[in-house]
Specification:
The complex is a heterodimer of chains A (485) and B (455). Chain A has 485 residues and is an alpha+beta fold. Chain A is built from eleven helices and 22 strands. Chain B folds into two domains: 223 residues, PmbA/TldD fold, CATH 3.30.2290; 224 residues, no CATH class. In chain B, a hairpin with a 2-residue loop joins β1 and β2. Classes of the chains: A alpha+beta (485), B alpha+beta (455). At the A-B interface, β1, β2, β3, α3 and α4 of A face β2, β3, α2, β6 and β16 of B.
């Protein structure tokens, strides 16, 4: 089994694969040189383990080892990227030469030094990484989830629980840093997911709840989080059994705290990624300094929160993550950047250059995106609505960054009638326009909450873990895609 | 370097060695697969090369069954030491699991004996030099930019090619390997008019380079799709007939396939539980999954467990005729496997369709639109608002409003909602415009009534 030597990425790759700092510097030399503005080598070793329970037993156990290196060379807007899952030095040299040949195209431009390596954070050092926790303990916990859910209600028919544990070791050499100036990171990640199927009177429904982060296995045991997830999944499934048809049309919507922050991720987050704005294809392009939300709204992207799923000590280009104010009191303040787009836009790096794995070049991506708390009492916000929808749980969302239209799907929602939460309604997609929806925010609660640690964001075929957060907010006018006209 | 398909024997040998090692460590049954891939992607934006990617990947997966448990593992490190570790780790994982009486490999007599030649590999196509790939992407984008003055920006043109060799072996006595190719060209233009900005996308994909449409045809269609969205409005909330274009109609088949897949059924998370043999749709509706289409984008000579590929009629003249089953889910449900096992990244088995399509009907697409006095023509669906357990359906829509049988103005920021069971039942007209552009294909489809939510 792996030892704690893994905590030192430089030694890990040097010992296992002979990829010493001087070798990496040599590779950089092959990728960079004249006519190349920037070059980097990204080496990754990732182990993932998944345990799955259904029918009361752990039937599924899978382990995945993935390793490789990506070499990138950039000249002006051009990026050459080559990767290989073979860490033999000759393969890497070939990749470096390919990347360079790809990026160079006859244009003269010398190497532009990038900012020196600032120190990364230390946001998720763990005494026991989740991948190393004993299998027997994990299996036992999954069994307890099954027993708890089946004990809650006789209508529970099936319990499906999965526990994933990962560790990603990365090592980066960039042309901006001198020889030996390597940046490494060891990133733990775990997630526990509970799905409960209930049945009554021939009707079946399903409830899903989970959580996790860059935390150890004990996170799920502490405060009995596993039991909370199980009760929530069961409760949601049972609530949905009794749900009425959802309303259709534009109405006032109150979003509960936490995961409903997916609204921000879709409505404004993607549209504020540097690449879309550099290309002028985002609905937010050219709007810096302009009003895009009500003055109650301040939205940040913060990759520096300890142990959060979306956090990173350094991004996948070696830039320490930061806290970027995207919208301040309704005014658009900033974009999220990777090196390429920051350089081409003449804007500062924000630590948002991320990639799914060595198989992909980085892009500007979100980390943990949330709205800061306001001053309103959440209960009073609900009381202020004569008729509307109160939505507290969501599935996924999607956005067209050019038209700005976005959707996110409510999985637990209730009618608000005369300021009171009444009947549960079926799931429905909510649709709105990114540059418009936050101007309709009329109340912001004091109850900011971050999600439980379940988000995964997809962009251009790459998936990365992210977080979102929201206080209770009231949005005056968003279209609810139910069936009840 | 060796092209993947030049050493299938070696790949199978490697797998059989892995299976022997697993047997020595206590596996009573095991299967394994090996995938070798080479991928190149060229992206051009506004006439300039923006990115070139070149990649080689190999991964090996092992699944074992011990007397009491089962586990799988995947590694991209194929050194002898790493593979030893793979076996040890899989055996260790299996110790903590419990298998039931349904788990295990297919019966040996069920395995494929002869592998059909499906013409899935294009050796010559992969010889295309990178300069020519750049030209494909450049020409596709240029065609989009030139097609209409309102196309003023672009997210770029792309050319993609991949060649893979997949080898599979199982202790039940099966070994097979086959090469596959994929080529694709696509463009994402951005159209601008009167402060409205819209992007759209068009593509062509094929197993053979010669099967791709011309870059000009792809570019022009992408431009047409982006421009027709300009000036889109919201629509009032109402109930109307809804016409799905072929691309969006195909997404309904994908939703149906999820609900018809074995794991969804035995877990009870499908609205199709217990409905085998029942009428789902009018007799005009026949839905087929056919892995044997020559050169098909979803074709394969055997499934992820070595079962023979064969055509499955999922919905036969309106009646639910078959589910999509791997060996385990079939046994759980007391049915025969249908050869729909697919392998997950981690080496486990899941269910996947191959070439899934809705058989064409008698109507021209224009005729279907003309039949609608007032309704919605859907060209894009966004979001994930499908509840497979209940069939409840609610998704964001981009399209056109139909008045008096004519497409009038573009619409967006609206949703359609209904229930998949009801939508299938209410299929009223089927187009004759079936074209295989992807693994799923459907003609234009009219559903009698759905809720449109807007203003």
């Amino acid at each position: 089994m792996a030892t704690r030597d893994l905590v030192r990425p430089e030694r890990f790759f040097a010992d296992r694969y002979g990829l010493t700092p001087s070798r990496l510097d040599g590779l950089l030399g092959l990728a960079g040189g004249r006519q190349v503005d920037y070059a980097d080598v990204f080496i990754e070793h990732q182990v993932a383990e998944e345990l799955g329970l259904e029918d009361g037993v752990v039937k599924k156990a899978a382990r995945t080892l993935s390793q490789g290196a990506g070499v990138r060379a950039q000249a002006d807007v051009r990026t050459g990227y080559a990767y290989t899952d073979d860490l033999a030095v000759e393969r890497l040299e070939l990749a470096a030469r390919q990347a360079r040949a790809i990026a160079r195209d006859g244009t003269e431009s010398g190497v532009v030094p990038v900012d020196g390596a600032a120190r990364g954070h230390d946001l998720y050092r763990l005494s026991e990484p989740p991948i190393e926790a004993a299998l027997a303990r994990k299996v036992e916990l999954l069994g307890r989830i099954d027993a708890l859910a089946r004990g809650i209600d006789t209508r529970v028919r099936q319990v499906i629980a999965s526990l994933t544990s990962e560790e990603q070791v990365v090592l980066l050499a960039t042309s901006g840093v001198g020889a030996g100036g390597l940046i490494g990171d060891v990133r733990p990640l775990t997630r526990l997911n509970v799905t409960v199927v209930v049945e009554a009177n021939g009707k079946r429904e399903v409830g899903v709840f989970g959580g996790g982060g860059r935390v150890g296995f004990d996170f799920f045991v502490e405060s009995e989080r596993w039991a909370f997830y199980t009760r929530e999944a069961t409760r949601q499934a049972l609530v949905r059994l009794d749900a009425l048809a959802a309303p259709a049309g534009t109405m006032t919507v109150v979003l509960g705290p936490g995961w409903p922050g997916i609204l921000l991720h879709e409505a404004v987050g993607h549209g504020l990624e540097g690449d879309f704005n550099r290309k002028g294809v985002s609905a937010f392009a050219g709007r810096l300094g302009r009003r895009v939300a009500s003055e109650l709204v301040t939205v940040v992207d913060d990759g520096t929160l300890a142990n959060r799923r979306g956090s990173l000590n350094v991004d996948d280009e070696g830039t320490p993550t930061g806290r970027t104010v995207l919208i301040e009191k309704g005014i658009l303040r900033g974009y999220m950047q990777d090196r390429l787009n920051a350089r081409l836009l003449g804007m500062p790096l924000t630590g948002n250059g991320r990639r799914e794995s060595f198989q992909y070049p980085p892009m500007p991506r979100m980390t943990n995106t949330f709205m800061l708390a306001g001053e309103d009492d959440p209960e009073e916000i609900v009381r202020s609505v004569p008729r509307g929808l109160y939505a507290v749980s969501f599935g996924g969302g999607q956005v067209d960054i050019t038209s700005g239209k976005f959707v996110f799907s409510a999985s637990e929602a209730y009618l608000i009638e005369d300021g009171r939460i009444t009947a549960p309604v079926k799931g429905a997609t909510l649709i709105g326009s990114g540059p418009d929806v936050l101007t309709r925010v009329t109340r912001v609660g004091h109850d900011l909450r971050l999600d439980e640690g379940i988000g995964t964001c997809g962009k251009d075929g790459q998936s990365v873990p992210v977080g979102v957060g929201l206080p209770t907010i009231r949005v005056d006018g968003i279209t609810v895609g139910g069936t009840e006209v | 370097m060796a092209r993947p398909s030049e050493r299938p024997g070696e790949m199978v040998d490697r797998l059989e060695e892995l299976l022997r090692r697993a047997g020595r460590q206590g596996a009573v049954e095991a299967d394994a697969f090996l995938v070798e891939e080479e991928i190149q992607t060229v992206q051009v934006r506004l006439g300039q090369v923006e990115s070139l990617k070149h990649a080689r990947e190999t991964r090996c997966s092992l699944r074992i069954f011990t007397p009491t448990g089962s586990a799988s593992a995947t590694s991209s490190d194929l050194s002898s030491e790493a593979l030893s570790r793979l076996v040890e780790e899989t055996v260790a994982l299996a110790r903590v699991t419990r298998r039931d009486e349904h788990s295990g490999l297919p019966a040996p007599e069920a395995l494929a004996r002869e592998l059909p030649e499906l013409d899935l590999w294009d050796r010559e196509g992969h010889g295309l030099p990178v300069e020519a790939k750049i030209e494909w992407a450049t020409r596709a984008e240029a065609a989009a930019m030139e097609a209409d003055p309102r196309v003023q920006n672009s997210e770029g043109g792309e050319f993609y090619d991949r060649q893979s060799r997949v080898a599979y072996a199982a202790t039940g006595g099966f070994a097979g390997a086959f090469p596959v190719s994929a080529f694709a060209v696509s463009v994402t233009p951005v159209a601008v008019e009167n402060g409205s900005m819209e992007r759209d996308y068009w593509y062509s994909s094929a197993r053979k380079l010669s099967g791709l449409e011309s870059p000009e045809a792809v570019g022009r269609e992408a431009a047409r799709r982006a421009c027709r969205r300009l000036g889109a409005r919201k629509q009032v909330t109402t109930e109307v007939p809804v016409v799905f274009d072929p691309e969006t109609a195909a997404s309904l088949l994908r939703a149906l396939a999820v609900a018809a897949s074995g794991p969804s059924l035995y877990r009870g998370t499908s609205f199709l539980v217990g409905r085998l043999g029942e009428r789902l749709a009018p007799a005009s509706v026949t839905i087929v999954d056919d892995p044997l289409i020559r050169g098909g984008l979803g074709s394969r000579p055997f499934d992820g467990e070595g079962l023979p590929s064969r055509r499955t009629v999922l919905v036969d003249r309106g009646v639910l005729a078959s589910y999509l089953l791997d060996t385990y889910s079939a046994r759980k449900l007391g049915l025969a496997a249908t050869g729909h096992a697919a392998r997950e990244g981690g080496g486990g088995v899941t269910v996947g369709y191959t070439n899934l399509y809705l058989e064409p009907g008698p109507h021209a697409a224009e005729e279907i639109v003309a039949s609608v006095a007032r309704g919605l023509y859907v060209t894009e669906l966004i979001g994930f608002g499908v509840n497979f357990t209940t069939g409840d359906y609610s998704r964001g829509v981009v399209g056109h409003w139909i008045e008096n049988g004519q497409l009038t103005y573009p619409v967006e920021e609206i949703t359609i909602a209904g229930n998949l069971a009801g939508m299938l039942r209410d299929i009223e007209m089927i187009g004759r415009d079936l074209v295989f552009r992807d693994q799923t294909a459907a003609p234009t489809l009219k559903i009698a009534r759905m809720t449109v939510a807007g203003q």
